[in-house]
Amino acid sequence: MTTTAADQASVPGPGDTTGTNSRQTAPEPVDENVWLEDIYGEEQLAWVKEQNSRTEDLLEGSGYDELEAGILEVLDSTDRIAMVGKRGDWYYNFWRDQQNPKGLWRRTTWESYCTDSPEWDVLLDVDELSRAEGDEWVFHGATFLRPAAGEPYRLALLALSPDGGDANRYREFDVEARGFVDPARGGFDLPTAKGNVSWLDADALLVASTADGLPKTASSYARTAVTLKRGEALAAAPRLFEVPEDHMMAMAAHDSTPGFERTFAVDYIDFFNRTNFVLRDGSWVQIDVPTDVNVSAHRDWLLFRPQQDWALDGTTYPSGALLAANFEDYLAGSRDLTVLFTPDAHTSLQSWSWTRNFLLLNLLKDVSSEIRVLDPSRPSGNTDGGWAATLLDACPPLHDVNAYAVDDEDEAPADGGAGDDFWLIATGFTTPTTLMRGTLEPGNLEPGSAGTSGVVSRHAVVKTSPSFFADDDYEVEQHFAVSDDGTRVPYFQVAPRGLALDGQNPTQLSGYGGFEVSRTPAYSGAVGRAWLERRTTVSEGSDGKAPHSRGGVYVVANIRGGGEYGPAWHRAALKENRHRAYEDFAAVARDLISRGVTSPRRLGCVGGSNGGLLVGNMLTRYPELFRAVSCGVPLLDMRRYTKLSAGHSWIAEYGDPDDPEQWEYIRTFSPYHLLKDAVEYPETFIWTATSDDRVGPVQARKMAARMLAMGIPNVWFHEALEGGHAGASDNRQAAALQARSQHFLWKALAG
C-alpha cells in the first residue's frame, strides 16, 4: 500500500507486450521519487536520517520526554496481565518489561498462575540470546509437537525475526533441556524467510517457505510447500504442494488430533479467495466449496462461512452465516448443512472457537459483543434445525468480550481435563482488561424436553489489569453519522464527563476500514495518558466560560470496509467502491463538528497501514475537515503498491493499477497522486519502519518527499530502523512510536 500535476507519461510495465492481442498496461505517472524505493541504499538512508533528525528536533521539549516515559511505564508495567496458553500441564507466556526489553519465554503451573506472584520457569531469555548471537531477535511465537500419549510436551519450533519483520527463522527448541536442538544432531533450523511451518510428526515438518531458492509468488510469499525430514536440506525436500505464481501463497498444515489426523493444504488465490485440500491416500482432494467460502475443521465437523450469498442445492445461505456439515459425509458428496448462525442488520459473526465438545461464537451487535455457546449434540428445537444455543452472560454494553478454548485437545471435564474450559477476555475504553476462565457442560434434560435445554456455563475472574488513568472521569458514548449515500455509520466517543459542546475540544479520530477488520472497544493506558488526560487551556468559548483547562476526546469510527457488520459491510467499500470508506470517515468528522464536540481547528485523524491510506485520503480529499493528520506505515502510492513489498497480495481489496480500467478508479484514492498546488493541507506526520516487509517504508518516504518538495508547510517524517510493520520490536520502541504520533497531534490541535 516533480509537481502535483504529474505528467501521464507511459512507462512500460511487466504486462506490456508488442502483440496485437497484448494486454494494455495503465501508464505510470512520472515519479521523481522512485530513487527512494531502494530501501537500504546509502543515499536513501542518509535522507531518512536527515528527516528523522528534523522530526526529533520538532518533538523535543513541550513535555515530550515525560509523555514517552508515561507510555513506557504503561507498557512495562509488571501489574498488567500475563496472558497464557496451555500446552499439557503448563501455561506458557511471553513477557517484556524494562529489565527484559526483548522478552522472556516462560511457563508456570495453573496453581501458581492464579496467585498474585506466579513462579515462572524461564525457558528462553531473548535479550541474552541476542547478545550471544549478535542478532536483534524478535520473538514471534512457538509451535509445539504433539507428544506420544502419556508423554509431556517437549519440542517446539520457535519463530524468531531478525528485525521484527514478517520473515522468520524457525528453530527447534527443547523445553526440558532449555535450549535449541543442535542442527548437527538433526535439529530443525530453517533460514529466515516468509512462510509457515507445521509439525507432520516427530521427524518431519510441512514447510512453506521462500528460503534456499524456493519459488515466491508475485506477492512475495511461498509458492510451494515441502515435506522436510530431519537432516535434510530444505532445497532438496520433496515438494508436496504448489500454487500458480500469480496466486497469493501456499500453505500446508497437519492436524494431529488423535483419531482425526489430517493433512491440509490451502491455495490462497488472493486475500479473500482460497481453495482447500485434504490429503487422502497420497493425493489431494479438494473440499468442494466456492473459493470465497471460509472453511475450518474440528474433529467430526466442517464449518463454512460464506463471504457472499452461497446458492447450494436450491438453498441460498447468506454471506456472513455459519454452517456445519459432517466432515466425512461432506467429502463423500452429502450437502446436508446445518445453519448455526444467520446475520441480521445489527449482528455479525466475528470469530468462533471450539472447546472439545462445544462451539463458542463471538458476535458483534452494533459493535458491542455478544457470545453464544452451541452444543452440537443437541438440536435447537427450532425449525432451522440448528444446535442448542445459550447466550453467555458476560458482555456489558459498549465492550469487547472474546471467548476461546483453553485447550480443546485436553480431556473432557468429566475425565478430569480442561477440554471444555474457555477463556473470556473483556475490555472497554474505560474498563481495564479482565481475564476470566469458565467451564461448559450440557444443561440438565427436562422430561419430554427433546434435549433443548442448552449449555450451562460457569466463569470467574482470574486476573485484572490495573488502571493507568482516571477511568471514572470519562464516559463512552456511541453515535451514528450519516454518510453521503444515507448509510448510518457508528462511532465511539470517549470524552470527559460533562463535555463542553463548544467546538473547542482537541479530538483524535481513528479508523481503519479495510480487510473486514473490526475496530472494537479496547482499553489503552497509553491513549488515556497521552491524550485523554493531557491538558490545554482554551480561550472563552460560546458557553461563556473563561479560559480554562480541558483534555482530549478520543473517537473510533466503524466505517465500511471493516468487519463490524460482516462481509457485506466490508464488500461495500471494495475496489471501485473504496470512496465509501472515506465518505463514512468524513461523515463522522462532520458529525463531531456539527454536534459541537470539536471543530476543524481542533480535529485530527490517525491511522496505520490501510488506516494510513484512509487518513492519506483525508489529507488529500478532505483537508478542510482536519488540522492534523498522523499517517503510519501507510499505503499511499496506489499506482506502484503492487510492486512494493507484499502489495500484490492486496489486489482483491483495492484493484489492479496495471489494468487501465481499474487504474481509473484507483487513482481517485491514491494520495500520492492527489496532491495539488495552492491547497492548504493539514499538518502532516508520516511514520514508517525500514524493516517493514509487508507495506514497506517506500510509500511513506515518497509521499513526504513530494510534499516537502512542493513547499507544503508542517510536513514531518520519521522512519524507525527496526520493528517491521508494527513499527516497534520492543516496548521502548513502541513507546517512542506512540509518543511521537500523540505529541505531534497534541501540538497541532491543542497548541
TrEMBL record:
GO terms of molecular function: oligopeptidase activity; serine-type endopeptidase activity
Keyword terms of this UniProt record: Hydrolase, Protease, Serine protease
GO cellular component: cytosol
TM ranges: none
Domain of life assignment: Bacteria
Annotated protein name in UniProt: Prolyl oligopeptidase
Organism: Pseudarthrobacter niigatensis
Domain Peptidase S9 prolyl oligopeptidase catalytic: 549-749
Biological process terms in GO annotation: proteolysis
PANTHER family: PROLYL ENDOPEPTIDASE
Entry EC no(s): 3.4.21.26
Top-level taxonomy: Bacteria, Bacillati, Actinomycetota, Actinomycetes, Micrococcales
EC top class named in words: hydrolase
Signal peptide: none
Region (Disordered): 1-32
Residues covered by the Peptidase S9A N-terminal domain: 30-375
InterPro entries per UniProt: AB_hydrolase_fold (IPR029058), Pept_S9A_N (IPR023302), Peptidase_S9_cat (IPR001375), Peptidase_S9A (IPR002470), Prolyl_oligopep/macrocyclase (IPR051167)
